[in-house]
Amino acid sequence: MWIVELAFTGTPERLAARPAHRDRLTALHRAGTVRMAGPLDDDSGAVILVDLDDRADVDALIADDPYYRTAGVTIVGIRCWRPFLG
């Protein structure tokens, strides 16, 4: 499992790209790839939990979504997470 952490600014480009990004995340959630996703309470960023084994697969998932290259979106970190509960 992987944690993808994003930081945001309030650029119009980010806000315009967000609906398509959320649609993608919803489809990935239905497929079991994205476990959870959502913005931080102050909308300064977001956290996405991705259920993939390999970092290369996470990178491919990110490369497939133009939102991650949109002005106002910064990937702060991608970290492997090994939960023991859940």
TrEMBL record:
<dbReference type="InterPro" id="IPR011008">
    <property type="entry name" value="Dimeric_a/b-barrel"/>
</dbReference>
<dbReference type="Pfam" id="PF03795">
    <property type="entry name" value="YCII"/>
</dbReference>
<protein>
    <recommendedName>
        <fullName>YCII-related domain-containing protein</fullName>
    </recommendedName>
</protein>
<comment type="similarity">
    <text>Belongs to the YciI family.</text>
</comment>
<feature type="domain" description="YCII-related">
    <location>
        <begin position="12"/>
        <end position="81"/>
    </location>
</feature>
<dbReference type="InterPro" id="IPR005545">
    <property type="entry name" value="YCII"/>
</dbReference>
